[in-house]
Amino acid sequence: MNDKNKKRRLSLLNIIEAAAAVVIIIIVVFFAGVLKDRSGVSLSEPVTVEIPSGTGAAAAADILHESGVIKHPFVFRLESKINGYDSSYQPGSITVTDGMSYEDILNEIVKTNRDTITVSIPEGYEAKQIAQTLADAGVVSYDDFMAALDPSLYNYRFLSDIPADRPVKLEGYLFPTTYSIPRGYSAVEIVNMMLSVFDSVFTDEMYARAEEVNITVDEAVIMASIVERETSSDSERAKVAGVFYNRINSGMNLQSCATVQYILGERKPVLSIADTQIDSPYNTYKYPGLPVGPISNPGEECLKAALYPEKTDAFYFCLSKSGEHIFSKTYEEHLAAMDSNDLVMSVEQNGEAQ
Q: Distance (Å, rounded) from C-alpha 28 to C-alpha 32?
């Protein structure tokens, strides 16, 4: 072998050795980070995480990761399995503080004797209904909860779209589910629990989808809140959203009875003409486009419906005798559908609602 080939071979060996050294360093650094996080998470402040009923190791690891608590969900799942925690997860909230190890967190999740109060928040509840439910359960006062609905108190990216002049600023983001609330929790801590669950439900894919269809997260939540109040059927929600988008895109007013009911503070089955003329930014009979804010706190299915509406040529819908909605393309078809089902007009003397 001549000198030139020897030098070339030595150069190649040097490159391989250098590359191998870099790979080893990367592996060492990675595993050092894994071990560090596993031994004690790094948090600037305590984080409260809600573990829904039926949650397994994979879902819990994802929730903890998306909440910024753990950095390595696979390692968390592995530790859970190896140490026999998988079948012992308990629903409810846990509070993770700086320095807690993965094992410490798992021990909190499997505790069966947490001193908590369980409160169920139905899908479609308004903030004031949630406040009253919590007050009735002895968790926190109505006024304290309503006062805690201030976005400046919380740090979530979905709050950036909320206008400063919205009447009930966090309406729509108080995710409806069953909560196990530790006794003594403040209103701010409880609201943060609800926002934390919303944050885990509203995935990166949903953010990307909102951008894809050119709407803000807030607009998606507003639409979802309307769909939540207009139908309770999972199979119809995407189509109802499609109808409302059709109206907006064609220049029609949204004309959602649910938005007027939100103004009235009651669920009137039949609105009067005077009701539809109320001067409010929530009145979708009087003002075009979406209302100024959400009218309820929607569940996951309605959020998905708002982001993935069904393509339809329908512009109207009404409730049939069977409890399902009838969708119509024209106003004449809509009137015929209502007449065939002996339905009362949604608005007295004016069937243009829905």
A: 6
In-domain check, residue 346: no
Residue 154 falls within a domain, yes or no? yes
Domain that holds residue 305: 204-340
Other C-beta atoms within 10 Å of 289: how many? 13
Give the residue among 169, 168, 166, 174 at the shortest CA–CA distance from 197.
Answer: 174
pTM comes to 0.69
- Which of 201, 234, 261 is where one domain is finished? 201
Q: In one letter, which amino acid is 231? A: T
Question: Mean pLDDT for each consecutive 10-residue tract of the chain (354 residues)?
Answer: 57 65 62 69 82 84 89 87 84 82 86 75 95 94 96 92 88 92 87 91 95 95 94 86 92 90 82 83 91 95 95 80 74 74 48 46
Q: Using CA atoms, how far apart are residues 224 and 252, in angstroms rounded to an integer?
A: 19
**Residues 225, 287 within the same domain:** yes
> Does a structural domain hold residue 229?
yes
Enter the tokens of residue 176.
């409806």
Domain match, 237 and 329 both? yes
For residues 302 and 322, state if they share a domain: yes
List the one residue out of 169, 233, 281 whose CA is nearest residue 241.
233
The H or E element that residue 94 is part of is: strand 92-96
Report how far apart the first and last C-alpha atoms of the chain are (Å, whole number). 87
